[in-house]
Amino acid sequence: MAFMHVGYDAIQSGSPRKSEPDLLGADKAIARQLDELERISKYERDKHLGRDYFNDIENFYGLEDSDDARPSFRPRVRIPQLQTLVLNEAVDITDSSPKIYITKKGERDKEREKFYQANWRQGCYNNRIMEAFVWAMLSNLGYLQIGFNPMARKGRGCTWLDMRNPKTVFPDPYARSDSDWSFLIWEDWMYVDDVHRRWPDKGYLVRPHLYAGEADPYGSVDGALEFPEASPLSQGQTQDRKIFRDNRVRVRHCFMFDTTREKVKDYAGSESEALELVHPRFRYKYPDGRWITECEGVVLADGNNWCPQLPDDDLGTFPLVRLSAMPTISNFWGPPPVKLSRSLQETAERLYTQTFENVVRLNNGVIIIRNNSGLDPQAIGWLPGEVLMINAGTDPPQVINPQPLPQHMMTLPANILAIQKELQGYSQARQGNPGAGNISPDLFDASIYASQAMTRLRARMLAESIQRLAQIVFYVQSRYQRLPDRRFIGIEREEVSFASWEPTDSMDQYDAYLDEGSLRVLSGTALKSVVGALAKAGMLPTKYVLESLDVPNAEEISEEKLRESELAALARVKRPR
What we know:
Blueprint: E1 4-5, E2 9-10, H1 20-49, H2 53-61, H3 81-93, E3 100-104, E4 107-108, H4 110-122, H5 125-139, E5 142-149, H6 152-155, E6 158-164, E7 169-171, E8 183-191, H7 192-198, E9 210-213, E10 225-226, E11 242-245, E12 248-256, E13 261-263, H8 269-274, E14 282-284, E15 290-295, E16 298-304, E17 320-323, H9 342-363, E18 366-368, E19 398-400, H10 407-423, H11 441-450, H12 453-480, E20 485-492, E21 495-501, E22 510-514, H13 524-536, H14 542-548, H15 554-574
Antiparallel strand pairs: 1-2, 3-4, 3-22, 5-6, 5-17, 7-8, 8-12, 9-11, 10-11, 12-15, 13-14, 15-16, 18-19, 20-21
Helix pairs in contact: 3-5, 9-10, 14-15
């Protein structure tokens, strides 16, 4: 029986091993086609984002010097304001948990909803979404990968979600979104032993990855290769140039829509003609799309796409969801939000560095000594309280300091950083300073809400991606969760509650929907004021009010309040007039 770790690796077993030339002949051709698709995608990405953009943005986010940074005696002053704004925006948008509704034939399946939400919380999906959105703020694209691990939870299986670095993803460059792309490639670096273990049929053909260097970064390696001086591989290399291996190889997963057709084996022309039915003679070999796994020129797996098709997709669905922080109207990638103000932050850092240098120069004055003073500058020990003797009638040494920068130069970097906050959507109103004058609470909340236009825009775009993510996760779980399972929900009155999952074979009867209001960005103060006003008017039940304000034990408190109301009403009825 073939084993498949859905969404990550696959093993095709049962066929006898062939010789290496027979296996690698067709594999090399497929690998060259994948190289060409990857080249086209990378070329378009570099054209819009720039070459080595991801290496540069990783250094920027990690507060590391870029590779082309030159040594300088001037210490650089860093102001990581933009990095902090990116994290604040990601936390604000992903702070609330999405509410998913699951229906079966038009009716809600609350038991599956509870299990779905429990799986969402225990899998820390919100954290993975936050990490992907951080990448969306840095490069305007973040990716979430969905998969299923059949060996998790003691063989019951588990649907998982993980963030993927956009640098490792090569999508169709001419697509508008992740719902109409024709192909998708992503790469992982894995140890050779893992490749041999997960793909035993052809994984043994994969060799360790070799790289060139003057010194092994991992220490001594047995079997390190040295190029002979007469070898053509040694041209342009020093005598100490060696080839090392880190025992890792690149594994590529490619999803594409392949229109290859094959002849239907069970075609019965006479019976079809008798029934006046048109029986198909050919059918698509990969009806849901083709999935290829390749490593170092060896095709480890090749077959039909494992990801279930969504109701809104015409062909198939790939197990990757794109998050975007800015509208993509001209190309697949769009402008990264950090580019709106990164140049301003670098300018402010440059000015702060110059200000620091000015302070150092003011403390390092120039000492002027006249030549007739009789004082030898080499004899000065620069000690505190040192006594120096000069000739009578001569001027004492003078200390001359350079002129300081004007006052407006000291405040210019702060003004530039304030402009950056405005561009990133963090205006004075959003920070609690709506303006001068006496402002009522309603106007204060309205000013804060109006200042969150960029955040609400990103939340609206995120809702579309989460809707697609919720559907893929549910359909993957429905197809591959073949054993009953129970998930922890919470503790109520010291009793642990669980939600149960029962396998289903009728995936076409289920639908998953995202609550539109669950990702809506609102001011917490405005929400509390609205809920409080409606509660005072008697238009909201106690349980809904407590849940809206995130009060712990909301259900228990509402039940206790209900019992008190019932007892009070009963006492009024029994009270004699």
